[in-house]
Write a structure and sequence with these properties.
Elements (H helix, E strand, L loop, with lengths): L1 E5 L2 E3 L5 E8 L7 E7 L6 E6 L7 E2 L7 E6 L4 E6 L8 E9 L2 E4 L3 E5 L2
Parallel strand pairs: 2-11
Antiparallel strand pairs: 1-3, 3-8, 4-5, 4-9, 5-6, 7-8, 9-10, 9-11
C-alpha cells in the first residue's frame, strides 16, 4: 500500500505545474484526497481536497482561482493543477488519502517558485 506524490520542480513566477498523487495497493475512489504543503519554518497547511462523492472541492483562500484538484479514477490518481504560481507557493507538497479507518500520506514533492 503506497501513495506517491510527484510533479514538483522549479518554476518561474506566473508559471504552472501539475502534481500527481497516485495510489498503489488500494483504490482512491473511496477516499477523500487532500493536498497539503509545508514551507520552511512554517506549519503544514491544507491546500485543497476532493471528496469521494460529487461534492465541491475545497480550496484554501490563498490558492482559490489558481489551483484545481481533479480525479482520474481510471488511473487511480488525483491531480493538483497549479497555475499563476507565486514565490509564496514554494513548499514541499504532500498528498493524503483518508476514509474511516484508513489514512495514508505520500512522501512529498518539492515545489520552488523563483526567478
Amino acid at each position: 500500500v503506497q501513495l506517491q506524490a510527484s510533479g514538483g520542480g522549479l518554476v518561474q513566477p506566473g508559471g504552472s505545474l501539475r502534481l500527481s498523487c497516485t495510489a498503489s495497493g488500494f483504490t482512491l475512489d473511496y477516499y477523500t484526497v487532500g493536498w497539503f504543503r509545508q514551507a520552511p519554518g512554517k506549519e503544514r497547511e491544507g491546500v485543497s481536497c476532493i471528496g469521494s462523492n460529487t461534492g465541491s472541492p475545497y480550496y484554501a483562500d490563498s490558492v482559490k482561482g489558481r489551483f484545481t484538484i481533479t480525479r482520474d479514477n481510471g488511473k487511480n490518481t488525483v491531480y493538483l493543477q497549479m497555475n499563476s504560481l507565486k514565490p509564496e507557493d514554494t513548499a514541499v507538497y504532500y498528498c493524503n488519502a483518508e476514509r474511516i479507518g484508513s489514512n495514508y500520506w505520500g512522501q512529498g514533492t518539492q515545489v520552488t517558485v523563483s526567478s
